[in-house]
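dumping the sequnces here before i forget
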Amino acid sequence: MNAAHLLIELTVFVLAVFVGLEVISKVPATLHTPLMSATNAIHGIVLVGALLVAVVALPTLGPVLSVVVVFLASLNVFGGYVVTQRMLSMFKPREDKK
Amino acid sequence: MLAAANAPATQLWIDFAYLVTGVCFIMGLRYMNTPKTARLGNTISIAGMAIALVATGILLDWAAGWWIVLVGLGAGAVVGIYAARAVKMTAMPQMVAIFNGCGGGAAAMVASAEFLKLNPQTSAVPLDLAITSVLTAIIGSISFTGSIIAFLKLQEVMTGRPIVYPGQQVVNGLLALIAVAGLVLVTLNIDPLPAFFASLAAALVLGVLFVLPIGGADMPVIISLLNSFTGLAAALTGFALGNNVLIISGALVGASGTLLTLMMGKAMNRSVANVLFGAFGSVKTGAGGPATSASGGTVRESTVDDVATMLAYARQVIIVPGYGMAVAQAQHSVRELADQLEKKGVEVKYAIHPVAGRMPGHMNVLLAEANVPYPALFDMDDINPEFPRTDVALIIGANDVTNPDARNAPSSPIYGMPILDVDKAKQVVVLKRSMKPGFAGIDNPLYELPNTSMLFGDAKASIDKLVSAVKTL
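..and the predicted 3d for all of it:
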């Protein structure tokens, strides 16, 4: 990796930050807890990184830590999404008055 | 393993899949702009994650590591799904904290693996990789141990009160210095391996120590901040691995966490630095000069029947829930009371302060769980003009966010904090266990106003009594 490559990645990062700020600022306060747990699940994408360093012939971290890193990231992804979905299913509009 | 000729083309497709994932995450968050479309948004986000994982699967050495996927991924999925289904909504902040810590810890470990793979003992580490991987390890570690402490505090395994000791700032400053010094040494290729581990150790300890002095009511800020740390760590992992999907996702999360952190700070009229270093609510005995004289005033105690009558014959009632409501598990009873009142033609609205509860938006989730329709939930800015037109403001387990001193008394420690203007309602009813002050440890002159009446007792018991009293009217 060289400086030019690093700059391209930095560009991607900075633009994504601006997209993030733009999108997140439109989320109403009512949904801030689900938003937080949804973004929590999204940073579970580190699972991709965990798999890439763990599931190779000779993992740098050794077998035990490799399992641990995949476990942590996987817990983050699955727990995060399931709890977000559970919360969001509770938000209901006003029912018709009987 | 892939044939060498195929490898570039395959990598191109994988990178394309990662781009789709990034788009899914952005669209998923975009659809969270209304409760109606939020579930769809989360589903799109899940689809994006699935695409990234399948694409990554192509790159893995399954023959060597299939069991790591089976055990690690499998156990993570089982534990994660079980915990996510079992957790009570009141415990949501600690659940989010622990998932956040897992992500931070994983990011730190991935970065460490990348760093160690470079063989820093024998060969010089490229500058860009040195900076990104060591920085990821530092931020991820702070997020990891910090989240664990936040979890323990919220779960009340350890005290929720601030833990302070002399020289706390100095110790934290030194630890931060060690972490940065390690980073600098690695970039200069001076003893990179010991320097790396020194950074890592300092960051792990710093994560513990910087959350210790944070009090319970400041948790919304800390949870948001830790969330943005993990986002940043994930993005930096992307730099270290040269992986765009990690960079994009991490940037989104970092932006979200930062925005929420600033919002929470603003809602408490305190800078983030003040939250981190202020140890708010620890010892307030010395500062209470003029405040104690106010506590000598008289409060009017009311009865269940009086309050029930007042509520039933009102045109509009605004319910102001606080963390006390959640502690008493009273949200379902509150909803029942609102139902009864609506049957009698009373308009019922809920006023939610941004920092009510232990994380941003916590109160909304608790009320949604109790089947309160979300159009009845109002933000502070939307509901405040309504109070002068409101017959009864019913305050359940909220204190500091209703304190008029924040508006009127420049000497008050919470002066300038935006509050709910409940004192402008025609009648104010406060449900409270006792006259004990709130988290900030200050008296609330609201309780001595002539239009305020107090109903003492457990919030849930009081509301249940109110429900049956309203029914008989």
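The longest strand of chain B covers residues 316-321.
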